[in-house]
Amino acid sequence: MPQIPPTIKDGQEGLYLPNAEGQTLDPADWEGFRTQAHQMLDDMIEYTRKIRERPVWQPIPEEVRARFQGPAPLEPSSIAEVHREFMDHILPFAVGNVHPGFMGWVHGGGTSVGMLAEMLAAGLNANLGGRDQIPVEVERQVSHWMQEVFGFPESAAGLFVTGTSMANFIALVIARDVRLGCEVRNLGVAAESKQLTAYGSTAIHGCVSKAMDLCGLGSDALRLVSTDNRRRINLTALESAIKKDREAGFTPFLVVGSAGTVDTGAIDDLAELAAFARREQLWFHVDGAYGALAMFAPEQAPKLRGIEHADSLAFDFHKWGQVPYDAGFILVRDGALQRKAFSASSAYLARETRGLAAGSPWPCDFGPDLSRGFRALKAWFTLKVYGTRTLGSVISRTCDLARYLEQRVVDAPELELLAPVELNIVCFR
Ligand SMILES: Cc1ncc(COP(=O)(O)O)c(C=O)c1O
Fold first, then answer.
1. For residue 111, what are the contacts with CB-CB under 8 A and spacing of at least 6?
2. Along the chain (429 residues), what's the average pLDDT of each consecutive run of 10 residues?
3. How far is the CA of 165 from the centre of ligand 1 (A)?
4. Does residue 164's CB lie within 6 angstroms of at least one atom of ligand 1?
5. What b/e readout covers 313-338, taking b as 16+ CB neighbours within 10 angstroms?
């Protein structure tokens, strides 16, 4: 019988990673690992607790950057050493969005609760592509909560994705398949005589154009419509763009409404847009990447009136929901259409009525990803620990802060307000 070499060699006791022969990746010394793990957790708690004492952002010194250009490691290092490297050379040079003084773009700040949930999810290392497991039920529960929050019907389906770029892409694929029929999945758009066109305001996010490209329709087929003085899509201009396209032989199929544009936080008149889309028989998708969760704030929510009529809604828990990156979400009014657009059968994904292979439909039937992490856990934790009321009041506070800044800008003769303040974005010069 071949000899199995010992897992720890003399002199390697301090290594928490495998022995030289690599029979296992388990810690060689669990107690030492525990001490190290507690140290790492303490360091992160201290980092978060004292974040106000740090700069929001600092430039990366050349010698630090150079450390990240070496070759792939062949030999093991101790976890303590690698952690030291993290503390010294990674942690100080991140974007800074955890800092309360970070006010750029629409980055979320995350929470300490979300950080812990990430750790638990990583420990479980669940793959949420499918199968009968409670992590999938957690994702379904968050989806039900969102269905409730946004006034979607029972037929709705929800799915965690990386971010709104992916969520918008998924929505466009569903809308495309609804208009062209699911044969397009086999035949491709090249076999199609119809030329589909989509519509959104000039303020919509660039990822919508990218999604048009990715689903084979081409970014030129996205028509950007002018906006009114509140940067909302101009419905008269939209109507005439569609009419013109129809006369020229195009097939309009989709209108994208914005619930908080990336640059000024503008919100289209979603109720009017929903009614318009229904009349014109267009798929109505709402990009609510950052603004949709204003639903949690009772005094902001009325601005989103009409969102409940969307055929699909994309938003990010990692923005105003303060869930750590990444945690995008797509909610589709008729989940059956989403499933038609993405399900595919293969022997290795066969479904059973009991056992681990039960529980169909699976999340992989609703989007392009098969392997999927447990993003739902950090959102579930965040929602349960804070409740939507507290998250909503934090959202409200950021809007109040924006109103305060708006007033300061208006009061200062040397400053000029460049766009109306709708939510929590203030543009001025
Ligand atoms: C309105 C809007 N749409 C889409 C996106 C893209 O979302 P993500 O970065 O999560 O992919 C953003 C990002 O800021 C956004 O603000």
1. 322, 323, 324, 382, 386
2. 50 49 85 97 97 96 97 95 98 96 92 98 98 98 98 98 98 98 96 96 98 98 98 98 98 98 97 98 98 98 98 98 98 98 96 97 98 98 98 97 98 98 97
3. 6
4. yes
5. bbbbbbbbbbbbbbbbbbbbbbbebb
* Cβ-based burial of 62 (10 A; exposed 0-12, middle 13-18, buried ≥19): exposed
CB 205 less than 6 A from any atom of ligand 1: yes
- Only one residue has tokens 């479980």, namely 124
Helix H or strand E segment including 315: strand 312-316
287 lines ligand 1 (CB under 6 A): yes
Report residue 53 as tokens: 């004492």
Structural tokens at position 109: 């700040």
Cα atoms found within 13 Å of the Cα of residue 55, Cβ hemisphere only: 8
Q: Is the CB of 359 under 6 A from ligand 1?
A: no
Residue identified by tokens 């995008």 is 328
Report the SS3 class of residue 177. helix
